[in-house]
Amino acid sequence: MRIAIVGAGISGLVVARLLHERHDITVFEAADYAGGHANTIRVDTPNETHHVDTGFIVFNDRNYPQFERLLGKLGVPWQPSTMSFSVSDGRGDFEYSGASPNGLFAKRSHLLTPWFHRMVSDLARFNRAARELLGGGGDGRDGGGPSLGEWLERQRFSRPFIERLIVPQASAVWSADPRQMWSFPARFLAEFFDHHGMLGFRGRPRWRVVAGGSARYVEALSAPFAARIRLRSPVRAMRRDDRGVVVSPHRGEPEHFDQVVLATHSDQALALLEDASPLERSVLSAIPYQINEAVLHTDVRMLPRRRRAWASWNYHWQPEPGERATVTYHMNRLQSLHAEREFCVTLNRTEAIDPDRMLRRIAYAHPVYTADGVAAQKRFAELSGRDRIHFCGAYWGWGFHEDGVRSALRVAEHFGARL
Ligand SMILES: Cc1cc2nc3c(=O)[nH]c(=O)nc-3n(C[C@H](O)[C@H](O)[C@H](O)COP(=O)(O)OP(=O)(O)OC[C@H]3O[C@@H](n4cnc5c(N)ncnc54)[C@H](O)[C@@H]3O)c2cc1C
């Protein structure tokens, strides 16, 4: 069968890997590299070379079974990483890190601040209440139940806990607008936190990174069909006809395929479908994406003022939250880089970074989850593969790498292929 796969992120590459031996595949990729959000940048300094991840960074031993299986089959090594979280206003008036008591009270006067203690004690209460919410029936993914905002208010958590701890954490996890977290489905969040061992202080998963950067697994995964990947080849549109699907690239002539796998984001997929059915339109538009600008840089002013408050993920807190998550990933810590400089990836604070310390600017996009979106995910089987077009991408799950792999396996299974 002649199959076009549009998008060479984790989802498209896994489908391509599983289909390339039995089918005549062509992978269209808009960018000049394969990997999508798995995007490792090589940085050469006078004395060193480093491979720094900028999009996908970490996975763990509990929530990424299919991705770990894939790495195992490819023989790609991983190494341990450390996960910790800090919140800082950037001025040093308010900051803490969850990594240790020293980090928690990085600002010593917080030891004597009642609302700070209440904020910390509310966390234990939140963990219990979230477990009760899950025990109360329903599935986090059914999109039902209260929104996070309603639920937090009903439970009477303190403002500092809501604004300076739980919203920053949730906003950082999904790179989501902190104000949008208010309408986020509470059960979806509770279920995610529970699965990731975040509703307790023990039994947390062990975090990992791909040794040498995520590009190492992309190379191994795509090696057998590298010649079938067309880089710098954005698809403009597609439509079904009586022979199959006509795929029109931005440059070049339209081509005929028997089937198409759309491994782009949901909004991009919908924009490509000239003849989208009402169902395709309604499901794909229920999970919109939001642009987040990432900058790889070495400006340590994007980390908390006090070094003892530095963490792997550092949330920049503002009294009036902006429209985007503002987070700095400390890559030396996450990837155990032994470097003379501190490598950071900062989301959505480009204007605050010293331009002389910027190494790369990249526009990424993340799915925005609402109750409608979570309900739309359930309709996958009604639409994918029903009319020659298949859909995969991390947006079919929680938006992470494992979700990308799982969505790809589901599509590959339709063609009778397994990992
Ligand atoms: C900054 C950041 C940090 C993250 N950190 C983590 C993490 O630590 N752990 C984790 O599990 N997840 C993380 N994620 C989530 C990440 O998005 C997913 O893990 C996953 O990589 C998404 O894969 P995908 O295949 O769905 O999409 P993508 O990787 O975005 O792939 C889609 C591909 O489609 C291509 N494309 C789009 N339109 C067209 C077109 N018209 N024609 C041809 N090609 C097209 C794009 O160029 C892209 O390559 C992070 C994301 C970001 C942005």
What does this structure look like?
With 419 residues, the chain is an alpha/beta fold. Helix content is 31%, strand content 22%. It contains 14 helices and 20 strands. Strand 3 and strand 4 (49-53) form a beta hairpin. The two termini are 19 Å apart. The mean pLDDT is 94. Flavin-adenine dinucleotide is lined by residues 6-11, 28-31, 36-38, 55-59, 234-235, 263-264, 268, 272, 294, 364, 366, 393-394, 399-401, 404. The site of flavin-adenine dinucleotide has 33 residues, from helix 1, strand 5, helix 9, strand 19 and helix 14.
User: Regions with pLDDT < 50 over 5+ consecutive residues?
Assistant: none
Q: If you average the pLDDT, what whole number results?
A: 94
- By secondary-structure content and strand pairing, the structural class works out as alpha/beta
Strand order of the largest sheet: 8-7-16-17-18-15-19
Ligand list: flavin-adenine dinucleotide
Helix % is 25-40%
CATH architecture of the largest domain: Alpha-Beta Complex
Q: What is the CATH topology assignment of the largest domain? A: Polyamine Oxidase, Chain A, domain 2
Please provide the count of β strands.
Answer: 20
What gross morphology would you assign?
A: globular
Number of helices: 14
Largest sheet: 7 strands, mixed
State the CATH class of the largest domain. Answer: Alpha Beta
Separation of the first and last Cα atoms: 19 Å
